[in-house]
């Protein structure tokens, strides 16, 4: 075969295959590919947990432990009543409110009687056990084991007159709104519970 | 069922509900080597969607098959990379 028909290399073609330029382009592509890969792996989520009732302790912990299973970077910032979820003693004794809860099978006037919150909590606890749903303690342990950063708002610790030692081992203390906001700004998902 | 795959290990999460099937699958996968296949036996019907979603959204794992067998939901998850 003759090579006569091949067009002679033009100046443009020579420039396109300039080895230094090609090398620079290859490096840039590798760099960008790495950035894209980082984004895929680096999903971040921040949950702000403000509620400390028995039922409201579940959603943030279930979402946090599941997100950690996806390999996400997860912070749960516990503030106000949400702090009780991380408090070793209080956490074991969270209550479900019988009053103002339309899902309760009793009217508010009866739900307001002394001891009704305890009854409602026991009924819910039984359902949770029967359904094979994890306990709050199990979910906290799982979350901590899988690298979830459970944070206890320092201002609320002082407001509630709690001690930093009252919380589960592994809970982050000494953090405030600015820390939470910083992680939220970097997060792909932010939830207020 | 399990004869179709050379399963390395079986995880029993029967009687457990969300988020346990996913969270325990992740923990069990962490203990395996690339190329290993984990069989997950669950009774939570939500695990069909949840384990699929988790496998799709997680690097280094592939969902090979899901089988609904009476009241049991069996998942085959391969660890594809460390």
Which features would summarize this protein structure in a list?
heterodimer, A: 193 residues, alpha/beta, Hypothetical Protein Ychn, Chain: A, 2 domains, five-stranded parallel beta sheet, 9 helices, elongated, B: 82 residues, alpha+beta, Translation Initiation Factor IF3, four-stranded mixed beta sheet, 2 helices, 4 strands, 34% strand, globular, UPF0033 domain-containing protein (chain B)
Question: How would you characterize this protein structure?
Answer:
The complex is a heterodimer of chains A (193) and B (82). Chain A is an alpha/beta fold. Chain A has 2 domains: 10-41; 43-192, 3-Layer(aba) Sandwich (Hypothetical Protein Ychn, Chain: A), CATH 3.40.1260. Chain A has helices spanning 11-16, 19-41, 58-69, 88-91, 108-111, 116-130, 136-145, 154-159, 177-186; strands at 44-49, 73-78, 149-153, 172-175, 189-192. Chain A has a 5-stranded parallel β-sheet with strand order 4-3-2-1-5, with helices on both faces. In chain A, helix 3 (58-69) links the parallel strand 1 and strand 2 (73-78). The longest helix of chain A has 23 residues, at 19-41. Chain A is elongated. Chain A starts with 10 loop residues before the first helix and ends with a strand. Chain B is α+β, with helices and mostly antiparallel strands. Chain B has a single domain (2-79), classed as TusA-like domain (Translation Initiation Factor IF3), CATH 3.30.110.40. Chain B has 2 helices and 4 strands; from the N terminus they run E-H-E-H-E-E. A 4-stranded mixed β-sheet of chain B has the order 1-2-4-3, with helices on one face. In chain B, a hairpin with a 2-residue loop joins strand 3 and strand 4 (72-79). The longest helix of chain B is centred in the N-terminal third of the chain and has 11 residues, at 20-30. The radius of gyration of chain B is 11 Å and the shape is globular. The mean pLDDT of chain B is 92. The chains are: A alpha/beta (193), B alpha+beta (82). Chain A binds chain B through residues 40-41, 62, 65-66, 68-71, 131-134, 139, 142, 146, and chain B through 15-20, 22-23, 25-27, 43-44, 50, 54, 57-59.
């Amino acid at each position: 075969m003759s090579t006569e028909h091949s067009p002679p290399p033009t100046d443009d073609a020579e420039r396109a295959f300039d080895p230094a330029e090609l090398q620079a382009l290859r490096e840039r592509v590798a760099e960008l590919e790495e950035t894209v890969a980082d984004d895929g792996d680096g999903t971040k989520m921040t949950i702000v947990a403000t509620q400390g009732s028995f039922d409201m302790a579940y959603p943030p912990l279930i979402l946090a432990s599941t997100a950690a299973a996806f390999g996400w970077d997860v912070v749960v910032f516990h503030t106000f009543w949400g702090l009780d979820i991380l408090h070793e003693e209080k956490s074991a004794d969270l209550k479900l409110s019988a009053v103002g809860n339309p899902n309760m099978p009793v009217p508010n006037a009866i739900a307001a009687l002394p001891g009704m919150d305890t009854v409602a909590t026991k009924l819910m606890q039984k359902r949770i056990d029967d359904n094979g749903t994890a306990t709050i303690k199990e979910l906290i342990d799982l979350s901590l084991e899988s690298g979830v950063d459970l944070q206890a708002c320092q201002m609320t610790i002082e407001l509630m007159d709690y001690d930093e030692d009252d919380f589960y081992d592994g809970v982050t203390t000494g953090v405030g709104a600015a820390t939470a906001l910083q992680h939220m700004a970097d997060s792909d998902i932010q939830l207020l519970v | 069922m399990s004869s179709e795959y050379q399963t390395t290990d079986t995880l029993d999460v029967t009687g457990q509900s969300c988020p346990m099937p996913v969270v325990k699958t992740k923990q069990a996968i962490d203990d395996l080597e690339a190329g290993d296949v984990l069989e997950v036996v669950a009774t939570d019907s939500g695990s069909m969607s949840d384990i699929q979603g988790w496998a799709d959204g997680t690097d280094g794992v592939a969902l090979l098959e899901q089988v609904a067998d009476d009241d049991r939901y069996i998942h085959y998850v391969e660890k594809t990379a460390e």
